[in-house]
Amino acid sequence: MDIIIADKTHHIYADIICKTIEESANVRGTGIARRTPEYIIQRMNNGNAVIALEGNDFVGFCYIEKWDHGKFVANSGLIVHPNYRGKGVAKMIKKKIFEHSRSKFPNAKVFSITTGLPVMKMNSDLGYKPVTFSELTKDQSFWKGCQTCKNYDVLQRTSQTMCLCTGMLYDPKTKNNQDKKKIKVKVFQRLKRIKQSIFLKKTQK
């Protein structure tokens, strides 16, 4: 399997990438912002995406987004095809896109918002720390991308201060990645349960 920087030669995979993202959102029942093939192709053209392939078969994908004029970058749309899940592929893709982000945007803060416990664990292993949404980008173009998420109403009700997603940040200037103490998955699980009990009950009323 190869994990490489995506380019124009990979446009043919845009449809299956979008389909895999959408199907994953439906199965998980949690927030994954949907993307169009045109959106994915633009990331490939900019050299801001990585793709995993087994021969000519699509395995996985992730892309980089810039915000606040490059002060922040996010590694988004991490997805693995169902045929290749449970084999550690997501972790390899995550490491590749993180290294690509650090190389291409060395001074940028790398952030993530996610409801996925495996992604939180991968972020923690790379040096991300949980933060409040106030420490993330203020660029409204980023937050508009959440409109296709089923939990968008939660973000609106809290005036964009919190949601079911957990915010995580890697700040190269504070060298927080040098702290080798990793956050236990149980902590993320407890945080997720608390958010669900607060916000989902309000939604159901």
UniProtKB/TrEMBL annotation:
Keywords noted in UniProt: Acyltransferase, Transferase
CDD domains from the UniProt entry: NAT_SF
Xref: SUPFAM superfamilies: Acyl-CoA N-acyltransferases (Nat)
Protein name: GNAT family N-acetyltransferase
Originating species: Pseudotenacibaculum haliotis
Keyword Acyltransferase belongs to the record: yes
Domain called N-acetyltransferase: residue spans: 3-149
Domain of life per record: Bacteria
Enzyme Commission numbers on file: 2.3.1.-
Keyword flag Transferase: yes
Signal peptide: none
A molecular function GO annotation: acyltransferase activity
